[in-house]
Write a structure and sequence with these properties.
The chain is α/β, with parallel strands linked by helices. The protein has 18 helices and 21 strands. The chain has helices spanning about 15, 35-45, 80-90, 110-120, 160-180, 195-205, 235-250, 250-265, 280-285, 290-300, 340-345, 345-360, 360-365, 470-480, 485-500, 510-520, 525-535, 540-550, and strands at about 10, 50-55, 55-60, 65-70, 95-100, 105, 145-150, 150-155, 185, 210-215, 235, 270, 305-310, 365-375, 375-385, 385-395, 400-405, 410-415, 420, 425-430, 435-440.
Length: about 550
């Protein structure tokens, strides 16, 4: 068990949060990093135990075009400021990881400047990939080179060059000796050389016990990067996508399928998030803002290490723009949110989930078992050391009931609502409120749980002139919507059952065969159809749920 297995991360993009200028003039240091010191207490108050902060080091612009790996960006302050900042974090029990931008440097980095000056005779010629003096670029260097993402501002390092490898490993040693950092998030890890990452892992094991390496990886089999030789974790973009689109589409099958897909990669402790400095804010992405609650319950309860991006605990908006990420990386004043833990339901929920995560080991180490799954309701268990914790979420606008297999306890309690339910024949019958989630734990010694105010939908007010006819029509629609939701659900379910000609007495296996026959029509049953029925959409839990309405 390592510190990072139980961590709850807070993610800060410092140049944005501190309000630094977009362009670095390399002038006298401005001590903006000190403005972030009050945020350390806030990080603790919302239940976070670790901080991912970066990029931090000298660069000309957004921070990912490094000029000097050993000097804090002048727009943020001095190395002494960073040393003090990390020290305060440690005093308050917060681990710190830096952004390590080791795939490329900026054009102001000393090795690249030497190539500009000495051209073919530069001793650093092989520090970069594919330097070609028969080419040119938009800067009119008189040579071309490999870059990252098509941006010549980001010059790709030759990671197979032993000098480059040793230089970067020495940077890591410097960061630990100078700042006492606890780990590194590797930028663009999905394009880093694997032997280079193995060298970084060996250095990590050398410099500090439990030093953590987490990589930015978008697609692919994450186990290629997460293993005993390379990295400890990577960014879980697969789950990130499923969490918001699974709610927007009322499709919990997408989320459950993604979890199984990730589980098949092995026992990976992935870095889970719902937004960051490169993607839109979760509050912006959600079609129904009330889904903020079930999304975050899943973020904290599914396997992996949860992370909150600064400001999102307040439910702020942030839309990605075509030529700028500024709206995703805003300057914020903590004083503007001083009452958030009392008045902002998003903040209250995130803080509660942070506390729950810290004192519930099953959420960090427990196995995963799917218990029930429909488009709009989803339940699973995390089992650890003989204790079963049950998680339930509901993306419907109406309450829902669930009957779920429980652990060896007489009673369960919801850690968010405080609701208690008895175990009857090994099951609990629970009611989950509309657009909400709950974490159910066995009751111990009559322990009480506080009720948490779940996020409410915040819709902008629209000022309209409504005619009598429109008002009457609206009243009629509202009266229809006021009918019990279960009746509508039951009607829709009956349609599905009728469509597939499902008799009451059919077993689950027979039901699956019937669905296969319906899918195939007059044609053959393909292997892909079988896979869809058995592994993807028509899980046993859904089929049983369909039958429950008969």
């Amino acid at each position: 068990m390592k510190w990072y297995n139980e961590a709850v991360f807070y993610h800060i993009y410092p140049l944005g949060l501190a309000g630094a200028p977009k362009i670095n003039d390399y002038g006298e240091p401005v001590h903006r990093l000190n403005k972030l010191i009050p945020w350390i207490d806030h990080i603790k108050e919302i239940g976070c135990t670790a901080l991912y902060i970066g990029p931090l080091f000298e660069s000309v612009g957004h921070g990912y075009e490094t000029t000097d790996y050993r000097k804090l960006d002048s727009r943020l302050g001095t190395n002494e400021d960073l040393k003090e900042f990390v020290s305060i974090c440690h005093e308050k029990g917060v681990r710190v990881i830096f952004d390590g931008v080791f795939n490329h440097t900026g054009r102001d980095f000393f090795a690249f400047k030497d190539i500009q000056q000495n051209r073919e005779h530069s001793r650093y010629l092989n520090w970069y990939c594919n330097v070609n003096f028969y080419g040119n670029n938009e800067y009119n260097d008189g040579f071309s080179y490999e870059n990252w993402g098509g941006y010549n501002l980001l010059v790709k390092l030759n990671q197979r060059n032993p000098e480059v490898r040793d230089y970067i490993c020495d940077v890591i040693r410097f960061w630990v000796s100078e700042f006492d950092v606890d780990g590194i998030r590797l930028d663009a890890a999905d394009v880093l050389d694997f032997d280079f990452m193995r060298a970084l892992r060996r250095t990590a094991e050398e410099v500090k016990e439990d030093f953590w390496l987490m990589g930015e990886v978008i697609h692919g089999d994450y186990s290629r990067w997460v293993n005993g030789e390379t990295l400890h974790s990577v960014t879980n973009y697969a789950l990130h996508k499923a969490l918001y689109s699974g709610h927007n589409d009322h499709n919990y099958f997408e989320i459950a399928h993604t979890v199984k897909y990730l589980q098949n990669m092995g026992n990976l402790d992935l870095y889970n998030f719902v937004d960051n400095h490169d993607v839109e804010r979760i509050y912006t992405k959600l079609s129904n803002k009330a889904h903020f609650a079930p999304v975050h319950v899943l973020l904290y309860a599914l396997p992996g290490v949860p992370s909150i991006y600064y400001g999102s605990e307040f439910g702020i908006e942030g839309k990605k723009e075509r030529f700028s990420d500024d709206s995703l990386r805003p300057a914020l004043e903590l004083d503007d949110y001083r009452d958030a833990l009392k008045e902002n339901s998003c903040t209250v929920l995130v803080a509660a989930l942070g506390r729950i995560r810290q004192k519930t080991q099953a959420l960090s180490y427990g196995s995963y078992t799917e218990l029930q799954l429909t488009n709009r309701q989803y339940a699973f268990a995390r089992d650890f050391d003989g204790v079963r914790v049950i998680i339930t979420v509901n993306n419907d606008d109406c309450d829902a009931g669930m009957n779920l297999p429980a652990g060896h306890a007489a009673e369960y309690a919801g850690m968010l609502t405080g609701q208690k339910v008895s175990v009857d024949n090994g099951h609990i019958q629970i009611n989950i409120a509309a657009n909400s989630g709950e974490i159910w734990v066995p009751v111990q010694n009559g322990q009480e749980y506080e009720k948490v105010v779940m996020p409410e939908v915040r819709m902008p007010e629209e000022k309209k002139t409504v005619s009598d006819t429109e008002e009457k029509a609206a009243e009629e629609i509202n009266s229809q919507l006021a009918e019990p939701c279960k009746n509508e659900t039951q009607k829709e379910t009956e349609k599905v059952i009728d469509l597939h000609k499902i008799p009451e007495e059919m077993s689950v296996e027979e039901l699956q065969h019937a669905i296969l026959a319906k899918m195939a029509g007059n044609g053959p049953v393909t292997d892909q159809m079988k896979k869809t029925v058995t592994d993807n959409i028509w899980h046993d839990s859904l089929v049983n749920w369909l039958k429950s309405f008969r």
